[in-house]
UniProtKB/TrEMBL annotation:
Protein name: G10 protein
One term under GO cellular component: spliceosomal complex
Main location: nucleus
The organism of origin for this protein: Amborella trichopoda
Biological process annotations from GO: mRNA splicing, via spliceosome
Localization terms from the record: Nucleus
Matches recorded under InterPro entries: BUD31, BUD31/G10-rel_CS
Similarity comment text for this entry: Belongs to the BUD31 (G10) family.
PANTHER family: PROTEIN BUD31 HOMOLOG, PROTEIN BUD31-RELATED
Nucleus listed as a keyword: yes
Domain of life: Eukaryota
Record keywords: Nucleus
Length: 158
């Protein structure tokens, strides 16, 4: 016993040890290889040098891969109905997909949204949305790129 430590000992009370063991729901083995492959692409994009690129262009591949991963899980659950609700919720809780982006995809007019920054008015001039949200037939310039994520057009009418 140390000086000043309480002399009473509690029998049978040990602190719980947290483990990293995760209970994977059924069906995980079907989507795991694809998610691992996408995560490998993400690591490669994060480690890729961005010499000669603008500051914002270095993040574009990361945004694209995050979008791809979220879209993959969204399509499996809502379009193809190949995974269970339990597995879908597990993927969202573990961070395999962006819950907020998927919530936007379910709303009319946002089915093809590239990232959440493109609809944030505070991130753009004149408190509007991004130029990639403008339908192609209304654009003055036919080829554009979003400054935030590199998107070339995610308006629903395209």
């Amino acid at each position: 016993m140390f000086v000043g430590e309480d002399n009473r000992q509690r029998a049978g009370t040990m602190p719980k040890i947290k483990t990293n063991r995760v209970q994977y729901p059924s069906g995980w083995e079907l989507i795991e290889p694809t998610l691992r492959e996408i995560e490998a692409k993400m690591r490669e994009a994060e480690n890729d040098p961005h010499d000669g690129k603008r500051k914002c262009e270095g993040l574009w591949p990361i945004f694209r891969i995050a979008h791809q991963k979220s879209r993959y899980i969204y399509d499996l659950y809502y379009r193809r109905k190949e995974i269970s609700k339990e597995l879908y919720e597990f993927c969202l809780e573990q961070g395999y997909a962006d819950r907020n982006l998927i919530a936007k995809w379910k709303k009319p007019g946002y089915e093809r949204l590239c990232c959440l920054r493109c609809i944030q008015p505070r991130d753009h001039n004149f408190n509007t949305t991004c130029v990639c949200r403008v339908p192609k037939h209304l654009r003055e310039e036919k080829v554009i790129e979003c400054v935030h994520c590199g998107c070339r057009g995610c308006a629903s009418g395209d």
